[in-house]
Amino acid sequence: MIPLTLPHSATFGRDRELAVLRRAVTGAADGFGGCTVLTGSSGIGKSHLLRATAECAQRRGVAVAARAAFELDKAAPLITLQSALQQLQPAVDWTREDGDAQYRIIERLGAALEDYAAQRPLVIVIDDAQWMDELSALAVAELVPALASSPVRWIFAHRPAPTGTPGQQLMERLVRDGHEHVVLGALDDDAVRRLCAQVVGADVDNTVLALAGFCDGNPLQVEQLVRTLHLTGQIVVADGVATVVGEELPSSFITIVDQMLHGLSSDAQELLQAASVFGRPFGVESVAQLLEVRPATLLKRIKEATTAKILVDHGEGLTFVHDLVRLAVYGTLNSAVATMLHRQAAAITRAEGRSPIEVAEHLLKTGRSGSAEAVTILHDAALEVAPAAPSTAADLILHALDVIGEHDPGRVRLIADAVGLLASAGRLERAHDLGETALLAGLDPRTEAQLLLGLADAFKHAGQNRTAVEYADRALAVPDVPDSVRAKLHAVRAHARFYSDDLRGADEDGERATEAGLGTGEYAASVFGLTARSLAAQAEGRLDDAHGHAERATGIADRVRGDAIHRHPRIWLGSAQAGLDRFDEAEQTYRRGRETSERLGTAWSTPLWHYYHAGLLTARGQLDDAVAEAEAGVAVALNMTAYALAVPLLGMLTRLAVLQGDLPQAQAHLAHLQRRTAAGTTAAPEDITWSEGVLQDAVAGPGTALATLAGMYDALPARPALIAQDPATAAALVHIAAKAGDEARARVAVAAARRLAERNPGVISLAAAADHAEGLLTGDPWLLRAAVERFRRTPRRLALAGALEDAALNAADPEQGRAWATEAIAIVTECRAERARRRLEFALGGPKATSEAAAFRPGSPLHQLTRAELGVAVWVADGFTNRQVAAELFLSRHTVDSHLRKIFTKLGLRGRVELAQLVARDRLGPAA
């Protein structure tokens, strides 16, 4: 608990911990962000330290937003953060609209906090963070790194139990990610002695210390024990020294509290017992209704309880000094009295408009009739919070299932909803077990098909595509399934089949979904089916078809809006445009699609925007920007536990790290990818197998790579997706096979590239790729020259550099070869393709690249930055927020965050203030 209205009291035995927390506050005051996690058992003193920290921040002029989370927070998405931020003056300027999805809420909140911190440093303090609601936990996971460059300091306190809550998982993740971690242990003997002396107002002798020793250095228990004994006259002070008298001394915390109650009047005891049924701060009016008395009659009792330090003013109402005290008081109620109080509390909380979860929790403790009503409330509440907190919603329905009878007619509907929510929360094993149990029990056809659809959709989004296909097959085999449900099933199965390498099946299902969706008004299924057809067509090398399907899907979505627009077909339209070398159009498509996604708040699409945009940037040769995009995509995917979306991005990061010559980083990305795929997540071989082969070629040589890639070579005639997506890979495939001595597979790659070019005569880069691959295999300098000239007419800079390199190596004219080598080195140097640069300089003896005219003094650390990083650094140094920089540079905010983290790491800086000072010191003139 951290009620900031409490006066500061001395803190004993915590000098080291206080120093850490005060340094965190000082850092915020000096312009630096960060995060500190305080871990300790109940009553160990975490709340006291947070109060001292908040007071320190206020003295330093740092704004403080503080709140203790409560177990009931889970029922109100974002309540933990929102309630804390409501304390700020001036108020944080953000508006949460009804119907806002997670992504939109978090984006808006992050922007508001960044703007606020630009005017005044901020410390956000959350006590009992293990009870944080799910959306607050998700927001914190997103905003801690996003605001790391702003003077926003996050300070959390939590106890290690219970496990599995969103707040607890967040705390574990923050610690795992390397944020500052302070563990609170027991007080030492000297601290215990000083605490006892403070409570009684006198020195204490060994009788007091011996009794306090049974509390194992837990300050709450020590304080409550000594205060209780003093209150009941079992500690007396003589000649300025306190000593213990009497024989019946408490032996446990519960007996301490029980004895403490006996030291109060019967009226005060009655007040405390009644109030103990509330698991949150309560108002005087609420407890007066519970006791059926006028509020004014409670004032004397409340004063007695607050004087005894059992109740404290929390700001939101009165609360127990610690939840352990409340639970101990609650334990003194007999069952009949507890049942009566909970029945009344349910009515009171309902009348006050409190969370339905709180009403249900009271009802569950009132017997059979109350439980039946509670099930309905829990079910309705789960459906209400599901869009913002799917894991919490799943827990609520599971709670309802625990209460409802095995043969209750409402159980089937509960299970169907529970399966969908569990799957949305990524808890697939539990969803599978629950769904299969329900299916074994026998369901009507419509319910069975809906349940199987939910399972298929869930496993597809989790990347377990073969399982998704199996569920969709079972659902489609159910008789009398409505056509609208069939449309959805075909759409889901189409995408799952694509990622299971069944291109023909994906196209067939996509066509069925399209027609059934249009016929039944299930337009989202039509859009999703068409995007599956676009993917399949691109994988087969039918690039005009891929574009046509995606364009049709986009037209439907723009026309009908609704659920259809939430499928974001522009993701695949942009990909199809890029495949046709229409890069500028693809850029515009991605930009417009991203804006729509952010407006709608559809978080699931965010990693995909990053993935496809990173691919476009890679083709352009903007490798640093591509890395930042892909890293941002991985971070978002992991925050959402959307591991299936993280896998392709990790594959891309592996390949980018190889291009940039950072093989240890490439190995780390691939290891992360393999951990995900080992758990059953599948993705296209172009993302997984090709990434592994590229790294093996760089580390172990072409023979090892070829062993991994053999299946991809053999599949090229039917699935030339790799070359269609990145024409430069045609030559790479020939390089690997030829160097490994497998001419037959090299010829397969050449034939696939040539066939792809002939099928798509309007795509210059595919003709260039075919010339490059064939010229490389045959050593024909004229084909290699043709590849160079054709790639010059495309925006594919790295593909051009590769063709220049091979043309230089096979040039009949040494002078021409030198010119091509020089040009290739210039391109790869500008693109930051370090591995190719080193290879060219070693093999061809080309000139080393010279840096552009420096905008900063010679020797400045800023020269370590890439062009992209330097651009972000200058904007930030000039006082722009991350959001403003993103808008100016046409980047996502996540990409700017990623650039900034790298800038601070490279330069050894702690935040924006130091960056601004460095740029001001070393800048020679306007930045380029």
Give an overview of the whole structure.
- Pfam families: AAA_16, GerE.
- This protein is mainly alpha-helical and 928 residues long.
- Among the domains are: 169 residues, P-loop containing nucleotide triphosphate hydrolases (Rossmann fold), CATH 3.40.50; 67 residues; 145 residues, Alpha Horseshoe (Serine Threonine Protein Phosphatase 5, Tetratricopeptide repeat), CATH 1.25.40; 62 residues, Winged helix-like DNA-binding domain superfamily/Winged helix DNA-binding domain (Arc Repressor Mutant, subunit A), CATH 1.10.10.10.
- The chain is 66% helix and 5% strand.
- It has a five-stranded parallel beta sheet, sandwiched between helices.
- Strand 7 and strand 8 form a beta hairpin.
- The radius of gyration is 32 Å and the shape is globular.
Topology:
Blueprint: H1 15-29, E1 34-39, H2 46-59, E2 63-68, H3 79-85, H4 102-119, E3 122-127, H5 134-146, E4 152-158, H6 166-176, E5 180-183, H7 189-200, E6 203-204, H8 206-212, H9 219-231, E7 235-238, E8 241-244, H10 253-262, H11 266-275, H12 284-291, H13 299-307, E9 311-313, E10 318-320, H14 323-330, H15 335-351, H16 356-363, H17 368-385, H18 390-403, H19 411-424, H20 428-441, H21 445-461, H22 465-476, H23 483-499, H24 503-520, H25 523-540, H26 543-560, H27 562-565, H28 570-579, H29 583-600, H30 606-620, H31 623-639, H32 643-659, H33 663-678, H34 689-699, H35 702-715, H36 721-725, H37 729-739, H38 743-759, H39 764-778, H40 781-792, H41 797-809, H42 814-831, H43 834-844, H44 867-877, H45 882-889, H46 893-907, H47 912-922
Parallel strand pairs: 1-4, 1-5, 2-3, 3-4, 6-8
Antiparallel strand pairs: 7-8, 9-10
Helix pairs in contact: 1-2, 4-5, 5-6, 7-9, 9-10, 11-13, 15-16, 16-17, 17-18, 18-19, 19-20, 19-21, 20-21, 21-22, 21-23, 22-23, 23-24, 23-25, 24-25, 25-26, 25-28, 26-28, 28-29, 28-30, 29-30, 30-31, 30-32, 31-32, 31-46, 32-33, 32-34, 33-34, 34-35, 35-37, 37-38, 37-39, 38-39, 39-40, 40-41, 41-42, ...
